[in-house]
Amino acid sequence: MDEKRRISLERASKLNEEIEDFLAFKDEFLRKTSEIRDVLSSKHKEELMDYFGADENDWNDWHWQLHNRISSVSLLSKFIKLSDEQYKMFEEISKKYRWATTPYYLSLMDYEDMSYPINMMALPTAAENDTSGELDPMSEEYTNPAPCITRRYPNRLIINVTSSCAMFCRHCQRRRRIGESDRIESEENIEAAIEYIRNTREIRDVLITGGDPLMLPDEMLEKIISRVRQIPHVEIIRIGSRLPVTMPQRITKELCDMLKKYHPLFMNVQFNHPGELTKDAVAACERIVDAGIPMGNQMVFLKGINNDKYIVQLLNEGLLKARVRPYYIFHPKQVMGTRHFEITVEEGLKIMKYLRGHTSGLAIPQYILNAPGGLGKIPLLPNYIIESDEEHIVLHTWEDREVEIIY
Ligand code: SF4
Question: What does the DSSP assignment read for 328-346?
């Protein structure tokens, strides 16, 4: 064996060792997750269909899913056994912050363990009583030059077309707008927003969001998208939706056929945990991608859900298999009632540093902190530069080896 091959083999064997812990974690984690995500969820689905007297066609109909949302403690307790204390706490929190989950998302939960990430994202906890933080840390009220519009950048903006969502995520950073009511913006307001875009030639990129814009019926959504598309200076349209995750039944062939008439169109979703990557959710993403719509994922770092390097890696690698590109990881904002999900930037950076070198670049999103006051996105990067001047730069690699480049 020549020397070069010997060195390469030695290096390859070290690289294998480097990933052994992750592979052991992956086997165990996927075994447990698939027990709940794939096996238990089918049992839960049968029970839920039985309870509602529904069949497979009903279950696969998004209108049925919406109509049968679970939003009362008494109904929830028919499926998940709640202690008296939990029952009381759920009732108390319900008065403060609305909650609801689709039957589909409920079927993904672990009925025995309230600390399972899917449960945590959908069901209230006593920690929501904490009154620290703000309801509008992004000062959206001050970046609102026309009805339904949020504008923070020179050439792109957001239209919020509705405050409705299929479920009310406990970590929602827009609690101020979401959950109080299911309100679709009036035609008059949407018209004023479109008029603003038409009169602002600087805007080339429009993000349609909410709430969740896919809560609108196809015709209403098409009316908005087609009118934005007619504006000559709008180059791209983006849709922000969590429905592929919380109610994948919404991603119908009809919806995809409608959307693909308005390219270039992009869609961003929010998967936060591998337990959300079910067969139904993956199939929904594939229908969107097959319609020629590139998909990106915007995860939020959430304590107890995904503040773990291996979970983020598994999620991102799973997303790539579903043809969804991990696009952003958001640092959680200091929103009242969600502070129990916060992590430190330090912790987030450690996870980002781990990802580099341990997974494909395609599975490494940008870590973003939204500046308070609506001042825009700040990318957060682990620091790889040790020192730098006119003559040289010293850096460290993903393995923490020091390298120097002399100019
Ligand atoms: S889908 Fe998005 S906007 Fe709606 S409740 Fe969840 S996080 Fe908030």
Answer: EEEPPP-BTT-GGG---HH
Half-sphere exposure of 37 (CA within 13 A, CB side): 19
Q: pLDDT at position 38, please?
A: 83
Q: Which fold has domain 140-345?
A: TIM Barrel (3.20.20)
Residue pLDDT, tens place only, 57-111:
999 999 999 999 999 999 999 999 899 999 999 999 988 899 999 999 999 999 9
Interatomic CA distance for residues 22 and 17, integer angstroms: 10
Whether the pLDDT of residue 139 is over 90: the answer is no
Do 270 and 298 meet the contact criterion of CB atoms below 8 Å apart? yes
Domains in the chain: boundaries: 140-345
- Pair 324, 296: CB distance under 8 Å: yes
- 228 touches 197 (CB < 8 A): yes
Q: At residue 315, what are phi and psi to the nearest 5 degrees?
A: -60, -50
Residue 221 identity (one-letter amino acid): L
Q: Is the dihedral of CA 349, 354, 359, 360 positive or negative?
A: positive
Separation of first and last alpha carbons in the chain: 37
Report the candidate in 182, 171, 207, 193 with the shortest Cα–Cα distance to residue 331: 171
Ligand 1 pocket (Cβ < 6 Å) reads 165, 168-169, 172, 174, 178, 211-212, 242
Q: How far is the CA of 174 from the centre of ligand 1 (A)?
A: 7
Ligand 1 mutation pick, 120, 123, 174, max ligand atoms within 8 A of CB: 174
Q: Give me the chain's average pLDDT, please.
A: 95
Q: So what's the pLDDT on residue 180?
A: 67
pLDDT of amino acid 176: 72
Write the pLDDT tens digit of every residue in 290-341: 999 999 999 999 999 999 999 999 999 999 999 999 999 999 999 999 999 9
Q: Confidence class of residue 375 from pLDDT cuts 50, 70 and 90?
A: confident
Q: How far is CA 204 from CA 182, 197, 263, 283, in A?
A: 29, 9, 14, 31
Q: Evaluate whether 276 touches 284 at the Cβ level (below 8 Å).
A: no
